[in-house]
Amino acid sequence: MTSLGYKERRDDARDLIRRTENPLNRARESVTERRNTLESIVPPQTDPIYIANVAAKEALERIISAARTNLEVVRRTAGRLGLKL
Predict the structure, then answer these.
(1) Eight-state DSSP code of residue 43
(2) pLDDT tens digit string along 1-19?
């Protein structure tokens, strides 16, 4: 009876391992897939589209700043000449 109890426990343990292997393998594959997805995401500092957008924004800010300066010069000149804008 002792050997039968051992054999039953061993078989139960094997059955438990078989039943848990498939969900564990699916979970492992899912984690690997998610890790690969995260690794494939390009950080903003190296993304060409992000870099181009930042450069365009900075260029526009410089253009707007220059236009404001030019507008102020025109207003002052117009004021000296007695013109209203």
Answers:
(1) P
(2) 456 688 888 888 888 888 8
